[in-house]
């Protein structure tokens, strides 16, 4: 709709720009999430190379930051089983034992690489 005065035209344009700015702001992820991992040193370089692409693929949904500390397979496994361990995933070169699977039923083993 076009009005005869410049004021109406500029107000209408301003409203469209405000609307577009609101759409862009709504489309950006407002929440930041850090996913921390630790464990085996063998996959460290591969995990580090994968993280930027995965973070970028999630950007339309969430601002994701991933970390991985190569502290050793056993240490990572111990940390993921420690309720205060403060990591969300671990890299290990040994599968969970039957006892560990029974004690920590929420842990899932996903092979990521072999070498």
Level-2 CATH architecture of the largest domain? 3-Layer(aba) Sandwich
Q: What's the overall geometry?
A: globular
Look at the structure and give the CATH class of the largest domain.
Alpha Beta
Q: What is the straight-line distance between the termini?
A: 66 Å
What fraction, in percent, of the residue positions are helical?
40-55%
Which structural class matches the secondary elements?
alpha/beta
Beta-strand content estimate: 15-25%
Q: CATH homologous superfamily of the largest domain?
A: Periplasmic binding protein-like II
CATH topology term of the largest domain:
D-Maltodextrin-Binding Protein, domain 2
The total strand number stands at 3
Reported for the largest beta sheet, the result is:
3 strands, parallel
Secondary-structure element sequence? HEHEHEH
Uncertain segments are none
Radius of gyration: 24 Å
Task: Please report the number of helical segments.
Answer: 4
Mean pLDDT over the full residue set: 83
Strand order of the largest sheet: 2-1-3
The total number of structural domains is 2
Q: How would the blueprint of this fold be written?
A:
Elements: H1 6-27, E1 32-39, H2 44-58, E2 63-70, H3 73-81, E3 89-91, H4 98-103
List the keywords.
115 residues; alpha/beta; D-Maltodextrin-Binding Protein, domain 2; 2 domains; three-stranded parallel sheet; globular
Kindly describe this structure.
The structure is a single chain. The protein is an alpha/beta fold and 115 residues long. It has two domains: 1-29; 32-103, D-Maltodextrin-Binding Protein, domain 2 (3-Layer(aba) Sandwich), CATH 3.40.190. It has helices at residues 6-27, 44-58, 73-81, 98-103, and strands spanning 32-39, 63-70, 89-91. It has a three-stranded parallel β-sheet with strand order 2-1-3. The protein is globular. It starts with 5 loop residues before the first helix and ends in a 12-residue tail after the last helix. The mean pLDDT is 83.
